[in-house]
Amino acid sequence: MSSDDEKMILDTISKWAEREVRPIAMACDHEDTYPHALVEQMKELGLFGATIGADYGGLNLSASTYSSIVEEVAQHWMAPSGIFNSHLITASCIERAGTDAQKEKWLPRMATGELRGGIALTEPNAGTDLQGIRTTARLDGDHYIVNGAKTWITNSLNGGCLGLLVKTDASTTPPRAGMSMLFIETRDEEGNLRPGLTVKKMKKFGYRSIDSCELTFEDFRVPADSLIGGEEGRGFYHAVGGLELGRINIAARGAGMARGALALATRYAQERKTFGKPICEHQAVQLKLAEMATKTEAARLLVRSAARAYDTGERCDMEAGMAKYFASEAAVFCAEQAMRIFGGYSFSKEYEIERFYRDAMLLCIGEGTNEMQRIIIARQLISRNPA
User: Fold this and answer.
1) What is the arithmetic mean of pLDDT over 206-221?
2) Residue 328 belongs to what domain range?
3) Residue at a domain's end among 84, 112, 140
4) Shortest CA distance to 117 belongs to which of 143, 92, 148, 135?
5) What does the pLDDT look like over 323-344, one tens digit per residue?
6) Rg (CA), the chain
7) How confident is the model at residue 42 (pLDDT cuts 50, 70, 90)?
8) What is the distance, to the nearest Å, from the Cα of residue 220 to the centroid of all Cα atoms in its chain?
9) Is the full-model pTM beyond 0.90?
């Protein structure tokens, strides 16, 4: 795809987000309702195939263009970007590591959004430490029998498939050597949950409307040919390989949210008057706006740098970690400063800024905590610059 084509796609998404996403964000968030109509529009726009290869019906967008799309959406409402991000992490895993038969079977349906889902890694006692997972899959003839629990899984209620990280051998050392990734279709042809799977939606402080759920597997049967790559013991590497794109997505969300909070605060500061003049003329407010603007631009530049590194095909966990860490913290900072600029009105549900404040903190936790990002950055820095 040419740069002109990618620019046209980005322009289309930008106009769509302004026209369709922003007007419904407040109501959907307050009512905690899933945006079904918006998802149908996302299918038509090709967002579920954004990074999937053209051979499988996807748009084959670069990470640079993809991250710009995420930023455009997130500046209005962060939650919808999670619907296609989790989906694309699993699709990326299949495209990178799946067998030819698996790619042909699943990717075309994922590209259209007919088959839509997410990635199931986190467990009640294992988040950033993936090697601590306890969900098991035991081979029984031509099926795996899955038992265990997952939590905070996006797209698990309203979607129909998941990349499921399991332990196929709990006796190995290190534990990652006994981990595998299964691709599961969670619903039958009638749309009912398959036997052995229970899904419970979680109530959340922020990032509402989007289904984050607790999953329980009790003797859940998965065809043996659903083992991604056809080889046990590779699941940990499949999972962490997709997290680079996931962290760039989180970073892009952070840059978008920082940008959105800055726009709201800048407009409000020009409309609100105190002591006979707009508050944007007060030095205290100007200092806040200046720092918000600087952090926002720095976040956007780090996202672009990480996306360019990803597009080269080289390892970029340091660049992705830097972007994710800084941009997510910038989103929190800008949301908080905007709350201060809005003053008492920031606590009113009639203003959008309170949603930015509630949503932003998730970015510091999701796809690996920011504490872990700093450790990754430091380790890579030392590795790349030996004494």
Assistant:
1) 95
2) 237-384
3) 112
4) 92
5) 999 999 999 999 999 999 999 9
6) 21
7) very high
8) 26
9) yes
Whether the CB-CB separation of 266 and 358 falls below 8 Å is answered with no
Q: What's the rounded Cα separation, in Å, for the pair 214 and 280?
A: 45
Residue 141 burial (C-beta neighbours within 10 Å; 0-12, 13-18, 19+): exposed
What's the token pair of residue 329? 């913290």
> Do residue 229 and residue 242 come from a single domain?
no
DSSP per residue, 195-263: TTEEEEEPP-SSS-SS-EEEEEEEEEEEEGGGBGGG-TT-HHHHHHHHHHHHHHHHHHHHHHHHHHHHH
Read off the pLDDT of each residue in 49-77 and give the average, rounded to a whole number: 96
Region 130-136 average pLDDT? 93
Which active-site residues does the annotation give? Answer: 367
Using alpha carbons, select from 374, 278, 287, 366 the residue that is nearest to residue 325.
374
Residue 368's pLDDT band, with cuts at 50, 70 and 90, is: confident
Residue 19: give its domain's CATH number: 1.10.540.10
d(CA 144, CA 386): 45
Q: Which runs of consecutive H residues, i.e. helices, occur in the chain?
A: 3-16, 22-31, 36-45, 63-74, 79-97, 100-112, 235-271, 283-311, 317-342, 353-363, 370-384
Pick from 93, 112, 131: which residue ends a domain? Answer: 112
